[in-house]
Amino acid sequence: MKKLFTLFILLMFGLLAACGSSNSGNESGQANAEENDQENTTETESAIRDNLEFTAEAEQQQDGITFSFELVNHNEEDVTVTFPSGQQYEIVLKKDDEVVYQFSEGKMFTEALVEETIASGESKTWEEEWQPEQELAPGEYNVEMQLLPTKAGDEELEEGAFTSQFSIQISDMAEETSADGEELIRNIEVTGENGTYKVTGEMHPSIGNVYYEVEDGHNYLVEQTEIPIEGEDWYSFTIDISIAEEDLPFNGVIMMSIFNEDRSYVVPVQLDQIQ
């Protein structure tokens, strides 16, 4: 009888141990599943941000600067980016350490949320044109351009997630007209990238001898070169430019200047912005 009782007690302990082990295993499995779910969610959200490609450019115009933002959605799904106010971007232009232009200065923005949905494989662009009240001094300027969404999809974005800093070379902001108001160069177009460019346009022979040069704000990449004048009326010109890869700047703007002999007439042309 005593042996049966002892056997019964051992069986009970065995059953209790098995249940405890099973419960512990279930709880451990559930915890691992929850942890994996959290990791998968984090990876998915991170992938959303990582598959949004941000670029920013600043290009000198005849009487100012055009700032352009682009956000490309490489995700497989549409993505909605959320801005906390009506201010969707910020631009700061500096000469040395002095702020020359700040987009938000003196402006008021609505406090309502703004949402922009970017379809898969598509992009959203923003553009701001600034015309300074006074002509900017020629030279190198530092640019910081920042897109200001706080969310992409359901993911919270860190401050400065879409920020670009680079330099731009400002040439003389001479108007593309002669002293008496006559237009001498028109319809300039630029194609190409990474050191190989084609510049086309039209020129009037009354400009006289005309030249071009290319620089990056620190070095001349193409020395002064004459553009042949043809005919007695408007004529088309094509300039092919090739810059060796080792001569390209690591980060900066490649500018061409087209000018007459005494440089009283100068047309700046941005060829590329390398980041």
Automatic annotation (TrEMBL):
Residues 1-17 form the signal peptide. Keywords: Signal. Residues 24-45 are annotated as: Disordered. PROSITE patterns: PROKAR_LIPOPROTEIN. Residues 52-148 form the Intracellular proteinase inhibitor BsuPI domain. It comes from the Bacteria. It comes from Gracilibacillus ureilyticus. Pfam families: BsuPI (PF12690). This is Intracellular proteinase inhibitor.
